[in-house]
From TrEMBL:
Residues 87-322 form the Alpha-carbonic anhydrase domain. Residues 1-30 form the signal peptide. It catalyses: hydrogencarbonate + H(+) = CO2 + H2O. Keywords: Lyase, Metal-binding, Signal, Zinc. The keyword Membrane does not apply. It holds the Pfam family Carb_anhydrase. This is Carbonic anhydrase. GO terms for molecular function: carbonate dehydratase activity; zinc ion binding. GO terms for biological process: one-carbon metabolic process. It comes from Rhynchospora pubera. CDD domains: alpha_CA_prokaryotic_like. InterPro entries: Alpha_CA_prokaryot-like, CA_dom, CA_dom_sf, Carbonic_anhydrase_a-class, Carbonic_anhydrase_a-class_CS. Reversible hydration of carbon dioxide.
């Protein structure tokens, strides 16, 4: 073994100091802390092969210290529930990061407070205009591999293959993921439902151009699609991401698109980006209370109710399509 050079010593010292800093910040910067540990292992490996010296020995000590330390950090993070810290917002009325304050707590979320085309809204009779030219919903869906992800703000099914697209006004949007909010975010003539699914589509050329199809559910019979996911949902508070296998968007959404509402709105979570083409299906599906409760048990306390309050409609109109 050759003795360690002063250059190398300087690099390792810098690295180790940064490492200690990141490990101590690990509860908020978990991923950096993790990559740091991986690097630490690499450094001590290099040390064994090529060099020796005080810094190298230190890196060994740190390495043996870091592993249990990380466990402690992640465990306490799990127990104290770091989700709120990650999301930076919640749904608790009156909280300093609650829905009324989304627009002021982060410089990138101002649209949540100042936007004039925000979602959700009440789909109210007075604003509805029948629009025969809307046509039926042009969907070209196909089954593709997907995974159930616990995003902590909601449960999400995300495709990692091509599950097809929807075409609105000659613009094609690929289907990306869907997720659930409870109770419903949109209301129809003031009536709030018990669950709402958002099927999120994105334009290939422009990621901020989105089309979301919303499906509302009222308490009643269990939803057959959610029934199939139940074993995974039950496990979702332990496992962040679980493969589902093939998921067909048609099965998730249901086939009845004969009547729907169309309006321009936004994402219903920060950053509340506008330019979202909303399609709210009129057909109300059913879901059992047990199924909704099962979804809620996977979410932190402040996200069990993850329904954004209704937003001002301003001068928007709502198109209605029915055959
Ligand atoms: C590094 O540790 C080895 C044994 O673990 C020891 O023999 C050696 O003196 C140490 N080197 C320095 C520079 O501390
Ligand atoms: C859920 O939160 C919204 C917005 O904070 C509130 O208006 C609503 O009453 C809550 N609903 C339930 C069922 O707790
Ligand atoms: C706002 O977004 C920019 C670019 O993505 C990012 O660098 C910055 O940290 C964000 N600000 C906050 C307060 O999150
Ligand atoms: C992308 O889409 C958004 C929302 O529809 C729109 O505001 C923006 O101008 C588009 N960007 C480009 C480059 O077309
Ligand atoms: C679709 O839903 C509408 C109500 O939105 C209902 O009148 C119609 O019978 C349903 N069609 C099918 C095939 O279930």
């Amino acid at each position: 073994m050759k003795p360690i050079s002063s250059n190398m010593q300087f690099m390792i010292t810098t690295f180790l100091s940064l490492c200690v800093l990141f490990i101590s910040l690990a509860s908020t910067r978990g991923e950096i802390g993790m990559s740091c540990i991986t690097l630490l292992f690499k450094v001590s490996d290099i040390c064994t092969i090529q060099v020796t010296g005080y810094m190298c020995n230190l890196s060994f000590h740190l390495r043996s210290l870091a592993t249990p330390l990380l466990h402690v950090i992640f465990l306490s993070c799990f127990l104290l529930n770091c989700a709120e810290e990650e999301a930076g917002f919640n749904y608790v009325p009156g909280s300093d990061i609650g829905p009324d304050r989304w627009g002021v707590i982060n410089e990138n979320w101002t649209t949540c407070g100042t936007g004039r085309e925000q979602s959700p809204i009440d789909i109210t009779e007075e604003r509805i205009q029948e629009q025969p030219d809307l046509g039926r919903l042009l969907q070209k869906y196909q089954p593709a591999r997907a995974a159930l992800k616990n995003q902590h703000t909601y449960l999400e099914v995300e495709w990692n293959g091509n599950a097809g697209s929807i075409t609105i006004d000659e613009t094609r949007y690929n289907v990306i993921q869907f997720h659930w909010h409870s109770p419903s975010e949109h209301t129809i003539n003031g009536q709030r439902y018990d669950l709402e699914m958002h099927i999120v589509h994105q334009n290939i050329d422009n990621e901020t151009a989105r089309a979301v199809v919303a499906v509302l559910y009222a308490y009643g019979h269990p939803d057959p699609f959610i029934t199939k996911l139940e074993p995974l949902i039950r496990n979702a508070n332990n496992v962040e991401e679980q493969p589902i296998g093939l998921v067909d968007p048609r099965e998730a959404q249901g086939i009845n698109t004969t009547k729907y509402y169309r309006y321009m709105g936004s994402l219903t979570v920060p950053p509340c980006t506008e330019g979202v083409v909303w399609t709210v299906l009129d057909k109300i599906r059913t879901v059992s209370t047990e199924q909704v409760n099962l979804m809620k048990q996977a979410l932190p306390e402040e996200f069990k109710n993850n329904s954004r309050p209704l937003q001002n409609i301003y001068d928007r109109t709502i198109g209605l399509h029915q055959i």
